[in-house]
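In full, the data.
>
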Amino acid sequence: MEPQETTKQNIIKLIEFRQAVYAHGLLARRDALFELLDALVTTGAVSSFAMLSQSDRFRRKWPSIYAAIEDGRLDSEWLRKDLAQRASKTGICVYALDGSSWPRPRAHTLEDRQFVFQASSDVNGGTVTIGYPYSMLEWIVEAHSSWSLPVDVRRVDSRKTAQEVGAEQIQALAEARCAFLEALDIVACDGKYGNSGFLRSVKGLRCGIVARLRCDRVLRQAPPPPPLRKKRGRPKVHGKRFAFKEPETWGTPDEIIELQDGRWGQVRLERWNNLHEQKGTDVPYDVVRASVHLEREQPPAALWLAWLTPQSVPQGQELNAETIWRAYDHRWPIEPGFHFRKETLGWTMPIFQSKEAGDRWTEITALATWIVYLARPLVEDTPYPWQKPQQQLTPQRVQQSIRPVFAQIASPARPPKPRGKASGWPKGKPRTPKQRFPVVKKTPVVAKTA
């Protein structure tokens, strides 16, 4: 949020966002969904899904809170486009692409459940459970903060991979922001996206792509120019070998930058242009090697990054190895963003009866994060007696102090209409158990060579 904006302008932004979501983003069960969104924002840490119906912002009875999620409908395409266009329209905008899981190990009546990774504090660093994987594309508002705003959230269907869904999200982002010619959008991806199969699907977009590479990769340099006198046979498609663990194969970098950083100490960045994989000659990309804390006796292992240049770079914008490295370094806030939505907003807490209901609740928690962010310049920090005051408020601290803001703005949702009691289950109608579905086990797909 720009500091020069007045309180009135910030309130108008918040009201306009809420009005737009109500008018265009919510379709069926609009009023109940909107009041559920308000209850989620103002309640604080969610103890249970049903308790949200006891909020003073939810004027309906408790069954309506389940009916809103089970029978409601959101315009996901409109929401993705609108949220993408709300990111900064100038300068460098960093987006983070990563995945998170919703464990549902005992929900045998839910179809399309898969084996997913669940972060854990165990010795092995994690464990495998059964549930739904979600792919998240988020705008990183500030580096080294707790603010990441969901732009595109999608469940990964068992017929697709996380890389395929992530590529669709980046393509939708590039299409939604094609009019913002003064913005340089960079998508920072984790290690599972650092391969030619994924990079091929996002090549040539207006977004720059930076992805972490494994430290044991072996690439190929560009082939030498063909001789003037033609020879028989196919021209060479591979150049010299480039192995990350063999410095003698690197050659002279195309760019070297040395700098001093307050967080990472002495930093050395090396960049090699136009490398490719053995089975990815059609996807050349640049490689950046980042060595940090060189002042220590034993510096940490170097970080290897792949870089796909965007289709065009805004005028006056410098794009070098430091820009690439800092863009990847700025992706970290997506981790506390996941934690805020799971632990405070209760994203993975409810037990719904369908996967579509889980998708709607996922989008509701994403919208709640945006409302908390838009209310950030309007709240005054109200720490509990055991909390220290904060200068830069975190999402949880903003939500903790947000109720006075909502006391000043009205809700566009219509009040509930009284009705009689439901007739209940018809007499004589048999009850049939729900169908049970097996867990889907994905098989690895062999990538096709170009």
Summary: The first helix runs from residue 7 to 25. The chain has a mean pLDDT of 91. The radius of gyration is 25 Å.
